[in-house]
Design goal:
The chain is an alpha+beta fold. The protein has 3 domains: 179 residues, Nucleotide cyclase, GGDEF domain (Alpha-Beta Plaits, 2-Layer Sandwich), CATH 3.30.70.1230; 55 residues, no CATH class; 143 residues, no CATH class. The strands form 2 sheets. Strands 1, 2, 3, 4, 5, 6, 7 and 8 form an 8-stranded mixed beta sheet that branches. A 4-stranded antiparallel beta sheet has the order 9-10-11-12.
Length: 427
């Protein structure tokens, strides 16, 4: 929490966020059999997920027993992180004894949430939790809302599971799944299976099978019409109820679906029109990006919503310059190491305890700030205060680690950052 805030009342903030839920399959049973080793494996996996979450610009909001709640400002980052978590844990499992291999389910949803202090509420959280419970072990389930955002930005081997009625939620949610790595090759042959119209989670699905069944039904009707015309058979008109039914695999379930659930035809894969977030929600999201120094994303976000956020649009040129500083600083951090760090000679210590020198490096995107007096702190760039960020950026501009990475006008970028955040480097 910002130490400058003195209001004792915790304020609620509504925002659009990508929520990730994780959970271990059968954890209680595993822990009962091999408690110490399973808990050690859980801490190991949670460490992997925490580091990957931070590397993708996310935040760990909570750990709930054997599960984690992660939050991202970008659905693309949330999905990229989730898929990388499963891939990393899968690769890691090859060198582990069987008793120490845990299988995680992951659910991802993009929706409106309410932040209240360290707590988060709303349908966005609930949907992500329900999607996690639908996922197969080692798989990632995500909503149609997430799919629409990431489909042209990430290459995913995902299967469409169709609309699912999630517990305690009103409207069915269209669900996609990135299957376990070991199953992806075999799943390529299941793309023509029909879409299920029930809420059973484990049946293979796909839109093309439904269309094929409809074509069969139409063909039968056309053939019957030709035979009828050729033989000139006169027969009384058949009412709608007396019409021959469609093939059982399609017709019975389809009629039951319409009668019991009164939902649109499952063959209609067009997602519902997205609900436009309010101006206050957009302003909150822009503030979150700014607070985490995600200037590249902030430029894209403000450009997309410039008509709704005119004051932020006036700062686009500033944000573009700071995006260049962000890219440069991350490249310098990635090139640094414990043996060859960014040397920051003046660094404000937490709680105003004074100024010290620190060593900074961020290979793999995980930022480490190390000093002889404070030890090493691992964090994300967004965990830094504006003064800390500026001090590290100043050192990186003045004494670059990666000489192959350049910044057009580092001094101007530092000055803009100082003005935007009211931060001053201690000298």
């Amino acid at each position: 929490m910002d130490p400058q805030l003195t209001d004792p009342q915790v304020r609620e903030a509504r925002m659009l966020a990508a929520i990730v839920f994780t959970d271990v399959v059968g954890f209680s049973k595993l822990a009962a059999q091999h408690e110490a080793r399973v808990y050690g494996a859980l801490q190991r996996d949670m460490g992997v997920m925490t580091n990957l979450c931070r590397a993708h610009g996310g935040q760990v909001l909570n750990t709930m027993g054997d599960g984690m709640l992660l939050c991202f400002t970008s659905a693309v980052d949330a999905m990229a992180c989730s898929v990388e978590i499963q891939r990393t844990l899968h690769n890691q499992s090859h060198s582990l004894p069987a008793v120490e291999i845990l299988h995680h389910r992951i659910g991802v949803h993009l929706g409106d949430v309410i932040m209240n202090g360290d707590n988060i509420f709303g349908d966005g959280v609930n949907v992500a939790a329900r999607l996690q419970s639908l996922a197969k072990p080692d798989a990632v389930c995500f909503s149609q809302t997430v799919y629409e955002v990431v489909k042209n930005k990430l290459k995913l081997d995902a299967n469409y599971l169709g609309p699912r009625q999630l517990k305690n939620l009103g409207e069915p949610v269209r669900v996609w799944q990135v299957p376990p790595i070991d199953e992806r090759a075999s799943n390529l042959g299941n793309q023509n299976d029909p879409i299920p119209v029930s809420s059973e989670p484990d049946k293979p699905v796909g839109a093309s099978g439904m269309k094929a069944a409809m074509l069969v039904a139409v063909s039968i009707v056309m053939i019957a019409a030709v035979v009828f015309g050729f033989m000139k058979i006169k027969a009384p008109k058949m009412g709608l109820d007396a019409m021959p039914s469609r093939p059982t695999a399609f017709g019975t379930a389809f009629k039951k679906h319409l009668k019991d659930q009164e939902q649109p035809d499952a063959t209609d894969t067009t997602p519902p029109a997205p609900v436009k977030p309010s101006v206050s929600a957009l302003e909150a999201q822009a503030a979150t990006l700014k607070k985490s120094y995600s200037f590249t994303k902030l430029v894209d976000f403000v450009t997309l919503n410039r008509d709704v956020l005119p004051e932020e649009a006036l700062k686009l040129e500033t944000y573009q310059t700071l995006a260049g500083l962000e890219t440069y600083l991350q490249a310098q951090g990635a090139a640094a190491s414990a043996m060859n760090p960014i040397q920051v000679t003046h660094f404000d210590t937490p709680n105003g305890a004074g100024v010290t020198s620190v060593r900074v490096y961020a290979p793999g995107g995980v930022l480490t700030v190390e000093s002889d007096t404070m030890g090493a702190r691992t964090m994300s760039w967004g965990d830094l205060t504006p003064v800390e960020y500026l001090e590290i950026a100043t050192a990186a501009v003045n004494q670059p680690i990666d000489t192959g990475t350049a910044i057009t006008d580092g001094a101007a970028a530092l000055q803009l950052f100082s003005k935007e955040y009211g931060a001053v480097v201690t000298s």
